[in-house]
Amino acid sequence: MRDTNVVVTGAGGGIGAALARRFAAEGARVAVNDLDKAKAEAVAGEIGGVAVPGDASDIVAAAREALGGPIDVYCANAGTGTGGGPEVPDADWESAWDVNVMAHVRAARELLPQWLERGRGRFVSTVSAAGLLTMVGAAPYSVTKHGAFAFAEWLSLTYRHRGVHVHAICPQGVRTDMLAATGKAGALVLEQTAIEPEAVAEALMAGIAADRFLILPHPEVAGMYAARAAEPERWLRGMNRIQRALEE
């Protein structure tokens, strides 16, 4: 990672800040993005990076300018944890879709022409285990994280032979403000095995070194993902038990 230009969205705290710190420790030049300008500047100042505050959907050009050159690694990390079900207003569904999926699409649209011309580039998508499984009590989050995973998978199968490397990070609970906001659902499903954001960054670095698409900071998710595919009725019954516990 030394002397590479890296962008991390949603990096004012949590997983994003941990990724930014780890890339900087590896010798990369890091552009720190966050909607909160003060948070972006604080992390950038800490790691010797550059702050690129604003909406993650539209920062590629500004990040290139701030870094003074082409982007080598783009971490689409910004996300929103919208809960609820079909009753959630359309505006909230649209926000979840825009942040969790379309921001990735827009970034790729801007990045791919230069990456394909250069024959190299790396796209990192912070998805969540919810993108492989689901999350009780959070339909917009679950649906859009499935979309984020599907887009990362599509990018990988379409461009890997042209030098574009793609990684999908799919952790379960991570000790961040987003986990704290999940309430009873998070306590039931995520808190017991929750890890620190730094463990996610460590898992990503190991995955990059091995050139692995699927990054599982919680290795047990692989078994859950396999069980979901192999025995969907059993898996759904198990998840429904968690849903019933949530309703008690």
From TrEMBL:
Residues annotated as coiled-coil are none
GO MF annotations in UniProt: oxidoreductase activity
Query: What's its EC?
Result: 1.-.-.-
Specify one Pfam family: adh_short
The signal peptide here is none
Report keywords, A-Z: Oxidoreductase
Principal EC category: oxidoreductase
The cross-references to Gene3D superfamilies, in alphabetical order and at most eight, read:
NAD(P)-binding Rossmann-like Domain
UniProt keyword Nucleotidyltransferase present: no
What InterPro entries does the entry give? NAD(P)-bd_dom_sf, Sc_DH/Rdtase_CS, SDR_fam
* Superkingdom to which the source organism belongs: Bacteria
- Tell me which family the UniProt entry assigns to this protein: Belongs to the short-chain dehydrogenases/reductases (SDR) family.
Name the record gives this protein: SDR family oxidoreductase
**Species of origin:** Streptomyces polyrhachis
